[in-house]
């Protein structure tokens, strides 16, 4: 049985009855069967675990004044301007649609201008707003609406930014906060325009997601997602930019009056750090007939080495080798990514490998075949540690 109202097994019916007896005083204003079953489904109908989860949620609500956040919260201008995302309409089930367009987002600049607490508070505000919209839809449609659809569009985004420690910590914090306080609120998470490195990021986040949430995530590259979206969302509820027919009051195909999109973050917007805006990539000039090496020391196995690079005008040769540490008995370097001449002037190149041994991993940018031209190269490299169960324990969910 599904565990929803009207589709309960005898054991689930019994668990619902016990949950009402044991946690009735914790339910607050929403004490419907639908509400009880959300907590029970989130804990596989373990009554005690569901009760404990609800108790912790109530403590969070009290600590951070979530019952009045929709009335009292006023985002800082920096957050309002630069934190992407917004609600554009309602899916075919009746729930709110939230769209997060990552194109051109500068994560470093965002995190210089806003603390993790600022961002988590605003995301929590959006969660509470979404629940309010669900309640309004339930009254309007005459049936229970308790979920929303979330679209993450990674087109035009350098995802290697998200693999930096501060960004990973923030993302982990929000996922933990969401799973602990808003169980069973997702209808579906739809990821579109996912680049190759998205797999690395997703694998790092998987340990923080429940099995039920993972089942509700659909991932697409550059193709076939528009048809998929329109199977779940009426075209008049989906902005033109994502395959629908909706525009906002300004006839904007992205509905920017409803959905915040990334715009350049100027240095004067930063929060008093004294730091200037930095480019996401390191830029160098590689002379003709020269190989430029970028050595990365990896002390432990099972880390992931991620890279992204581009050239301004011409192609470049690229390969990766591993050089052993001095005391491991090995002497020869090991070829990990075979030499290729890549059109990095046409499209930014990105990829990742698992570092199965400690050593010095060397990215080689080869311009030896060019007799006359130097090449201007921009690159970014990130080493990402594997996710562990311990990571779950140390993630902060403070707002």
TrEMBL record:
Q: Which residue spans traverse the membrane? A: none
Q: Which SUPFAM superfamilies does the protein's record reference?
A: CRAL/TRIO domain, CRAL/TRIO N-terminal domain, Supernatant protein factor (SPF), C-terminal domain
Q: Which GO terms describe its cellular component?
A: cytoplasm
Please state every residue range assigned to the domain named GOLD: 279-383
Q: Which Gene3D superfamilies match?
A: CRAL-TRIO lipid binding domain, GOLD domain
Q: Which PROSITE patterns match?
A: CRAL_TRIO, GOLD
Q: Which InterPro entries match?
A: CRAL-TRIO_dom (IPR001251), CRAL-TRIO_dom_sf (IPR036865), CRAL/TRIO_N_dom (IPR011074), CRAL/TRIO_N_dom_sf (IPR036273), GOLD_dom (IPR009038), GOLD_dom_sf (IPR036598), SEC14/CRAL-TRIO_domain (IPR051064)
Q: Where is the CRAL-TRIO domain?
A: 66-250
**Domain of life of the native organism:** Eukaryota
> Which protein are we looking at?
SEC14-like protein 2
- Organism source for this protein? Ornithodoros moubata (Soft tick)
Instruction: Tell me the organism's taxonomic lineage.
Output: Eukaryota, Metazoa, Ecdysozoa, Arthropoda, Chelicerata
């Amino acid at each position: 049985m599904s565990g929803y109202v009207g589709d309960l097994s005898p054991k689930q019916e019994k668990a619902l009855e016990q949950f009402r007896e044991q946690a009735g005083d914790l339910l607050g204003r929403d004490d419907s069967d639908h509400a009880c079953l959300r907590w029970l489904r989130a804990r596989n109908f373990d009554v005690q675990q569901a009760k404990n989860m609800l108790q912790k949620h109530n403590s969070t609500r009290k600590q951070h004044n979530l019952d009045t956040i929709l009335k009292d919260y006023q985002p800082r201008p920096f957050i309002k301007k630069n934190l992407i995302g917004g609600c554009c309409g309602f899916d075919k089930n009746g729930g709110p649609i939230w769209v997060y367009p990552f194109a051109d987002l500068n994560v470093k600049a965002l995190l210089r201008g806003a603390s993790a607490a600022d961002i988590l508070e605003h995301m929590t505000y959006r969660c509470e707003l979404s629940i309010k919209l669900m309640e309004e839809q339930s009254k309007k449609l005459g049936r229970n609406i308790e979920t929303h659809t979330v679209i993450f569009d990674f087109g035009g985004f350098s995802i290697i930014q998200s693999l930096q420690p501060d960004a990973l910590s923030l993302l982990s914090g929000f996922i933990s906060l969401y799973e602990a306080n808003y169980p069973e609120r997702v209808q579906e998470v739809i990821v579109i325009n996912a680049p190759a490195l998205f797999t690395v990021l997703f694998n790092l986040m998987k340990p923080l997601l429940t099995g039920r949430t993972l089942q509700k995530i659909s991932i697409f590259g550059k193709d076939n997602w528009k048809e998929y979206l329109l199977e779940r969302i009426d075209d008049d509820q989906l902005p033109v930019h994502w395959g629908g027919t909706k525009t906002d009051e300004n006839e904007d195909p992205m509905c920017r009056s409803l959905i915040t999109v990334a715009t350049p973050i100027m240095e004067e917007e930063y929060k008093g750090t004294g730091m200037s805006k930095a480019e996401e990539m390191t830029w160098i000039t590689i002379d003709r007939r020269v190989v430029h090496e970028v050595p990365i020391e990896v002390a432990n196995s099972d880390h992931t080495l991620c890279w992204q690079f581009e050239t301004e005008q011409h192609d470049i040769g690229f390969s990766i080798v591993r050089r052993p540490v001095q005391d491991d008995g090995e002497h020869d370097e090991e070829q990990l990514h075979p030499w290729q001449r890549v059109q990095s002037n046409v499209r930014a190149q990105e990829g990742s490998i698992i570092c199965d041994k400690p050593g010095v991993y060397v990215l080689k940018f080869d311009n030896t075949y060019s007799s006359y031209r130097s090449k201007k190269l921009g690159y970014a490299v990130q080493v990402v540690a594997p996710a562990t169960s311990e990571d779950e324990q140390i993630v902060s969910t403070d707002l």
